[in-house]
């Protein structure tokens, strides 16, 4: 055989070699194989509002979105996104130049990082972080600089001095997530003001993932773009999946200045190009639902948080009370365990429950080695049964 043989170099781009299969795919497969209750991956076990599902059916039947929609997103959805930002936060955006619809928030974050980060740039990210962040930074050739949220008085807190110290001459961008997955932290007005001041002082861009914006139980959600000096340097990301319980539709979006949107669109057009045509029309209607929907949705998840939290405490876990999202982070030290990954691998056989080890969301796994995350976006009877099963750990 002549020439270089296939496989003489690893097939996977070396930037992605450390990542492999996501923890969510691994644990969801484990749940399917064992028949365990899946409190690992964050998807609801019920659909969202019936009128929104019917809006999608109506769009399909009417032929709206069955062919390629416009690259930036259908006009109806872009208008609804800007109306939502104005109504809830007093932020004004131009639907024609300052909105980009994406294949979920995951693509929005990926496209933003690929557009704005070059090899050698440093990106500060709060850890523990959603796993795609690390992969996105790697694909862009950037260097990830973690700033760790640490447990303090039953919750996780950002050390602003540590954040400031992380900024160097090579820092290009801060990747922010509030409400924060997996810890449930909601950054305060004072913390966000400090982040904004630092970004302005050091001339940094910020990509802020706000997909849990309507799931805040304590405190309030404040978009960073609303702080002084941040409108022109912030890419705000959100999506429909978490707010309307249609995660499979993968409708996300970002808002930013025309220049930032144009930069991100230059990348996005070579990723999915467009997606979710009929669903875009349905989400346009969803975003215009009355405030009562958002209030009821938040109240229902607040109740579920407390339901699962009580069950976890009764089972013996140390529980860090989340201020937002639909995840609870716990500590397994009371059970005499320190390895969250091994604990989660064994949990389906021991108790018939699947959870996620937070250690995979840290650069230094030791920082979260004993932390385990549970999702509470499930039916009440599922959460009650999970709590009952987990009490076997103490027997």
Describe this protein's structure.
With about 400 residues, the chain is of the alpha/beta class. Helices cover about 40% and strands about 15% of the residues. Strands 2-10-9-8-7-3-4 form a seven-stranded mixed beta sheet, sandwiched between helices. Strands 11-12-15-14 form a four-stranded antiparallel beta sheet. Strands 1-13 form a two-stranded parallel ribbon. About 50% of the residues are buried.
What is this structure, in a nutshell?
The chain is an alpha/beta fold and 395 residues long. It contains 13 helices and 15 strands.
Question: Any descriptors?
Answer:
395 residues, alpha/beta, seven-stranded mixed sheet, four-stranded antiparallel sheet, 16% strand, globular
Describe the sheet with the most strands: 7 strands, mixed
Please tally the helical runs, counting DSSP H or I stretches of 4 or more residues. Answer: 13
In the sheet with the most strands, the strands line up as 2-10-9-8-7-3-4
| First and last CA, distance | 63 Å
Percent in strands: 15-25%
Uncertain spans, ≥5 residues at pLDDT below 50? none
Helix content: 25-40%
- Tell me the series of helices and strands, N- to C-terminal: HEHHEHEHEEEHEHEEHEHHHEEHEEEH
Instruction: Output the radius of gyration.
Output: 21 Å
Question: What is the molecular shape?
Answer: globular
Number of strands: 15
Residue-averaged pLDDT, rounded? 95
Question: Structural class of the secondary structure composition?
Answer: alpha/beta
């Amino acid at each position: 055989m002549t020439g270089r043989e296939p496989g003489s170099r690893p097939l996977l781009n070396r930037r992605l070699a450390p990542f492999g299969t996501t923890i969510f795919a691994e644990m969801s497969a484990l749940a399917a194989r064992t028949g365990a209750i899946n409190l690992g991956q964050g998807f609801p076990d019920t659909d969202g509002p019936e009128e929104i599902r019917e809006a999608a059916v109506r769009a399909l039947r009417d032929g709206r979105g069955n062919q390629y929609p416009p690259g930036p997103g259908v006009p109806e959805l872009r208008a609804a996104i800007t109306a939502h930002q104005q109504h809830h936060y007093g932020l004004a955006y131009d639907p024609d130049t300052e909105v980009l619809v994406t294949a979920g928030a995951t693509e929005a974050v990926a496209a933003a990082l690929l557009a704005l980060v070059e090899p050698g740039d440093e990106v500060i990210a709060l850890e523990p972080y959603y796993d795609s962040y690390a992969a996105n930074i790697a694909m862009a050739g950037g260097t990830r600089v973690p700033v760790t949220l640490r447990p303090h008085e039953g919750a996780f807190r950002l050390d602003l001095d540590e954040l400031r110290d992380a900024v160097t001459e090579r820092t290009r961008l801060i990747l922010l997530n509030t409400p924060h997955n997996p810890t449930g932290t909601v950054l305060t007005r004072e913390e966000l003001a400090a982040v904004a001041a630092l970004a302005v002082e050091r001339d940094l861009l910020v990509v802020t993932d706000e997909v849990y914006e309507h799931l805040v139980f304590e405190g309030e959600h404040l978009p960073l773009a609303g702080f002084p000096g941040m409108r022109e340097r912030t890419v705000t990301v959100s999506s429909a999946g978490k707010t309307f319980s249609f995660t499979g539709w993968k409708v996300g979006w970002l808002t930013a200045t025309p220049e930032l949107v144009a930069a991100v669109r230059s990348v996005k057009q070579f990723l999915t190009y467009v997606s979710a045509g009929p669903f875009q029309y349905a989400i346009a209607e969803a975003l215009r639902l009355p405030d009562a929907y958002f209030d009821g949705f938040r109240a229902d998840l607040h109740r579920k948080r407390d339901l699962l939290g009580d069950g976890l405490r009764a089972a013996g876990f140390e529980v860090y009370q989340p201020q937002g999202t639909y995840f609870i982070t716990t500590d397994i030290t009371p059970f005499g365990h320190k390895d969250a990954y091994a604990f989660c691998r064994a949990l389906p056989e021991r108790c018939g429950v699947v959870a996620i080890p937070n250690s995979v969301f840290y650069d230094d796994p030791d920082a979260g080695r004993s932390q385990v995350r549970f999702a509470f976006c499930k039916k009440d009877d599922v959460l009650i049964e999970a709590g009952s099963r987990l009490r076997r750990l103490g027997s």
